[in-house]
Amino acid sequence: MNEQALLGLADDELVLGWRDSEWTGIAPLLEEDVAFSSIAQNEIGHARAVYELLVGTEGDADALAFDRRPEEYRCAPLVELRLLEWAHTIARRWLYEVADEIRITAFKDDSDRAVAGLAAKIDREEAYHRMHAEMWHERLREEPRFRAAVEELWPYALGVLPAELRAELVERVGLADAEPVERGTHTDELAPLWEEMTMVRRSAPAGAQW
Amino acid sequence: MVAVAEQQVWQALEEIPDPEIPVVSLVELGVIRSVDVQDRHVRIEFTPTFLGCPALEVMKRAMEEKVAELGAEPEVEVVTDDSWSTDRITPAGREKLRSVGFAPPAPREASAPKLVQLQASVFRCPYCGSTETQLENIFGPTPCRSLRYCESCRQPFEQFKTI
């Protein structure tokens, strides 16, 4: 089991789930409010399943998800960015889904059956995220504001994938290869998100009761 | 603690409604993959529908309680592999979904569903039976649903996603 790559996947889905959920209640269309909330819920569900796989049946997935320092997270800088602007948000969703499909397809062939099985399950759900991203990409692809957002986020998108999978992303997105913003480095925007994301966990170390 | 028969366990599980769509049981939803009885120990393998489904824990607890009521010791294992698809919903389950205005999922094809398929008007309205329906939103109030609108009876309805 490639634990570092799986942790990267789980952290990406957790952090992007939080970022996508920031549109809940304030998306420009009611339909998108529903869509972003649902996508966020799925992404966080995927993160939970991968954390659970990593810690095993006796382990504590919440501890893995929330008890690390911000610098210990393995998420790609792309998912950390706080993008409450529609063109950038859709540009990230589309770039992320294209990259994520390449990564999930590779995990589906993993020699570890538990990894391959979970990847196949995640892939079934991601099909709907891809449709959503494709639908918006079709609608906005000629818009200068959207093109600019895609180009701005492109080096970050490359950083979602390990070097050996990037050629396919370059081909599918159709932009020239660029210097990737690598996983393992973090943007300044992760720390404030981490503060919010881990607040309940840190304030009730013995476990929150609802 | 008493020994129980596998059939008793299945019957007990048939009484558990889906927490979010209570018209169908967990058995009709096809999420119970296996029941293995060893004397007083009952092991259930259960596959979630969607990984982000908040009803997961509720379902797990309900199964444990049902088995305990039979006087046996429950063990529920959540299997997060690829074995559940909407094709596992039983014919009776599909009919019950339809009866409450919830269009059952289209059969899954070899490859993942595509947007063009969702946009095609082949999805039948659960109220009037018309196929003149439009996709309103790929997403809905829970991860497993899409929203559609019937042009014929002018009724919005929920469509179970095919996964």
What characteristics describe this protein?
heterodimer, A: about 210 residues, mainly alpha, Ferritin, 10 helices, about 70% helix, globular, B: about 160 residues, alpha/beta, GMP Synthetase, Chain A, domain 3, 2 domains, 4-stranded mixed beta sheet, 3-stranded mixed beta sheet, 5 helices, 7 strands, about 25% strand, elongated
* N- and C-termini, Cα separation of chain B: 39 Å
List how many beta strands of chain B DSSP finds. Answer: 7
CATH superfamily of chain A: Ferritin, core subunit, four-helix bundle
* CATH architecture descriptor text of the largest domain in chain B: 2-Layer Sandwich
Helix/strand structural class of chain A: mainly alpha
Instruction: Give the number of DSSP strands of chain A.
Output: 0
Please outline the helices and strands:
The complex is a heterodimer of chains A (210) and B (163).
Chain A: H1 3-21, H2 30-55, H3 61-66, H4 77-80, H5 86-108, H6 113-140, H7 144-158, H8 166-173, H9 190-197, H10 199-203
Chain B: H1 6-14, H2 26-29, E1 32-38, E2 41-46, H3 56-69, E3 73-78, H4 91-99, E4 102-103, H5 115-119, E5 133-137, E6 145-150, E7 156-160
Parallel strand pairs in B: 2-3, 4-7
Antiparallel strand pairs in B: 1-2, 5-6, 6-7
Q: What is shown here, in short?
A:
The complex is a heterodimer of chains A (210) and B (163). Chain A is mainly α.
